[in-house]
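May I ask you to comment on the folded chain given beneath this request?
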Amino acid sequence: MTLEEIHRTQQAFVDAAVRAYKAGYDGVELHGCHQYLMCEFFNCRVNRRKDEYGRYPQKFAVEILRAIKDKVPSDFVVGIRLGGFEPDLEASLRFAKILEEEGIDFLDISYGFSGEDEPAAPEEFPFQPCIYAAQEIKRAVSVPVFAVNSIMSPKMAKDVLQKTNVDLVDIARGIMVNPNWAKDALEGRNPGKCLHCKECTWSREKETCKGRILLKRQREIVQ
């Protein structure tokens, strides 16, 4: 990318955040992982630029964050989904601290540029490596930190919160099975779970979701 292309792309991020604010949203989450563009800048094994955007891999994201903060009120939340191993935990810890200093409101930790990273956790750690990364990042910063990946039941969600001290867990596939997953879990009902069947490919065709079908049958039996 030329510098002009970088600045134009950064402005597109800023414009999108401002539109979200004007539309009445409470905040936005910048997507800095999962091999998307911001993630490519963070990972030094992918980002081989010789200019400042290569020497300071966080620069692309930090400039976007600053520009958004300049355009919206202070109570508009701006967080980021950050790879926990970019390319390793040490690098991501450094990015997390920098982003905190720059005013990020939360850090949502997932996987970064898969194939160009080193996800790892102690053998005895009971959850996914990116949850371990979230735990370690939480120890290093004071802003809220979120954990995600294969959190399939209310018990597991509670265990992650208690054992890692993160502030929040993300539930994705569970919500696709049951939009009321969190409410049902809090009230002690079976919220259902994703069966990993891949048949729906996370489509919008809710009727094809086997997890949703199973949950419906289980509730019919109870009734």
